[in-house]
Amino acid sequence: MQAAPHVLFDGRHGQNAALSEQAIETGGDPGSLQRAHHAGANCIAIDRFDGRYLISGGAEASIKLWDLEESENNSKDYLNRTAGSVKISASSHQYGITHLCFYPFDSLAFLSSSYDHKLKVYATEPMTVSATFDLDSVVYSHSLSPIADHLLVACATQNSAVRLVDLRSGASTHSLVGHHRAVLSVAWSPHQEYILASGSLDGTARLWDIRRSANSLGLLDLEDSVGIVGEDGIGKNARHRERGKAHTDAVNGMVWTDDGTHLVTTGHDERVRVWDMSTGANALSHFGPIIKNPHLSTLLPLLVPGYVIGPGKHVMFYPNPKEILMFDLFEGTLLKRLRIPGQPGAPGRGTTAQTNIRSRTTSLAWRTGHVDLYSAHSDGSIQAWLPRTADEVQAENEEAGEGGDAEDESRKRKREALDEIFRDLTKQKITFT
Question: What is the pLDDT of residue 414?
């Protein structure tokens, strides 16, 4: 993967148009025009059907729609302009957007949550509000099951209980009580429609079965690498764990693998943990000290779909400040560092850049049916990442070869010069008195 500087996003206008040569000449760096949201891009999502539409939410409460097909075949600089946007009104969000997701069964609708305590449902084409739910506390993130018929939206809020909103009845049905502080992240299982995971400011990660009167299935414990095996080896009739923490600080990110066998959590302890969900065991994947996660907002890693990389392989993209890190999910091996264009090198531990809110990568999204990655950033930009073409790989190899030959020639000349100096010194007669 590599940055695609020719794919730009500009939220200042309402129609798609090519980036003119005059704009490049007057603006200098085309990247300076990449401002989808002037106050910062908080989150993005791409529809899972055609991979055509991208929605983005801003720190200034704006929501914008982008048509990715407009620029996918463009080899020249191309400026994506909004295909639609939510008009700021009394019915729209009043504060920054915290999370966005398309309706899992139809890309004609999407959901949004905000710091204004609201969860909203929008129609994609007219970009108008279809329903609003007031949860009386900040909504950090939400999740809608990709397989279930129950249409329950799980909401992570400033309240210590997970809130469930029923899209059919239009009511907040009930709450899942168990955490002791604010809930920061929630995620439905992709294979079991009634199983939900949640992460909290108290450092715990809980599992829930919403069919049970006692909803909690227990906690994940970072010190347990064996898990609860039960009678059948995968948890049957086992006692539920009610003590333990998944992270030593707040848990602000949760993502399931496509097959539902593992859960990935992120925390303010700057660790990413992988859990075997058949037993709840810590898989002990270690990603090193380069992980950064200092902010309260939800931070979700992206797991590459299995159809892209093939069976038996698991790749994770992690949104670090000023860069995106590519890891082998289970080995923890760093495969690649994708530097954000226009940003200097990634910061080290303890540097002032670690707390620079304008350098954050806030959200990642994969484009279905393509090998495209998109990222949102706190400076307001949206960045496209595309695979290298065969011609680019060949040109890169040729440049590397030429560079290697030049380096070898330079070393040879230096060696010859040193040899000549040595020979001259040995020819001289030195007398000691």
Answer: 75
Q: Exposed, middle or buried by CB within 10 Å (0-12, 13-18, 19+), for 23?
A: middle
pLDDT given for residue 235 in this prediction: 46
Cα–Cα distance, 277 to 188 (Å, whole number): 13
Q: What is the CA radius of gyration of the chain?
A: 25
Using one digit for the tens of pLDDT, what is the confidence trace for 367-379?
A: 998 899 999 999 9
Nearest to 269 by CA among 297, 284, 247: 247
Alpha carbons 63 and 112: distance in angstroms, whole number:
9
User: What is the DSSP code (8-state) at residue 149?
Assistant: S
- Residue 352 one-letter amino acid: T
* pLDDT, tens digit, 9 for 90 and up, residues 259-298: 999 999 999 999 999 999 989 999 999 999 999 998 989 9
What does the alpha-carbon distance between residue 131 and residue 405 come to, in Å, rounded to a whole number? Answer: 65
What mean pLDDT is predicted for residues 386-396? 71
Element (H, E) at 271: strand 271-276
d(CA 274, CA 283): 5
Distance separating the N- and C-terminal Cα atoms of the chain: 68
β-pairing, 251-256 vs 262-267, is antiparallel
**DSSP single-letter state for residue 35:** B
DSSP reduced 3-state for 25: helix
